[in-house]
From TrEMBL, chain A:
Pfam families, A to Z: Sdh_cyt
Keywords: Electron transport, Heme, Iron, Membrane, Metal-binding, Transmembrane, Transmembrane helix, Transport, Tricarboxylic acid cycle
Protein name in the entry: Succinate dehydrogenase hydrophobic membrane anchor subunit
Keyword Metal-binding: yes
Mode of membrane association: Multi-pass membrane protein
Primary location group: membrane
Encoding gene (name): sdhD
Amino acid sequence: MSGKNNTDMRTPLAKVRGLGSAREGTGHFWRQRLTAIANIPLMLFFVGFLIALNGSGYAEVRAALANPFVALVLALVLISGLIHMRLGMQVIIEDYITSEGLKLATIALNTFFTVAVGVASIFALLKLAFGG
Amino acid sequence: MGDMHEDAEPGGAMSKSPATREFARRERPLSPHLTIYRPPITMTMSIIHRITGGALYFGTLLVAVWLMAAASSQATFDWVNWAFGTWLGRLILFGYTWALMHHMLGGVRHLVWDTGAGLEKHTASKIAWATLVGSVLLTLLIWIAGYMARGA
């Protein structure tokens, strides 16, 4: 701000990039906000889709999920939602788990859970979209 | 050179002096803040925001199960559809809807706060109440619309 650092030519963003214990700077904060904003229209679409589909049987649900627009948007719902929830759970873990070993293990489990849910869901979507 | 300077400190930077340790061990009076404190609505909604986030995290399993069932056999899908339609299933899905709506409105509140707006004490309390009332209204609206779609 003042004094000795006046000669620093870097922008405030350049100074914080790569900071923090994980060397990721504001990456976590920013991705959390970015996915939060994306989630608003995506989740509203998902809820509206489920309302419209309420009471439908096997064939109707499969036909609706096989629609290319629905499949693409649902893939985005999953990806944005899963990234957001993984970041959120990481904060919860970092806040409450103080043991270093358990913290590392749960942070790894957090990623595994997210990837497992994502891979299973997106595989189901692709199978429906490409006629399984 | 910098490293050598840090090594010169006896015991490294993390060790505490005997005086510091003695201070940490001493029994000091604590303010009974948590036991007599009436939680402001912003605090309650902050806690609920975190709880609903955690619930939504595990709720994704329901979405994955539903999608996988739709991608598999009719018998599997019918079973999952039946399970979601039982009273317990509906109760969980109703709670899931509310958690999503509350977390979404709470998230919008946080995005507004990120801009620096709405942080004045009374404004913040009003927005906090609005997230609670809004989430209940949206949840009821979604379920009414759902039952109307079912009836049509």
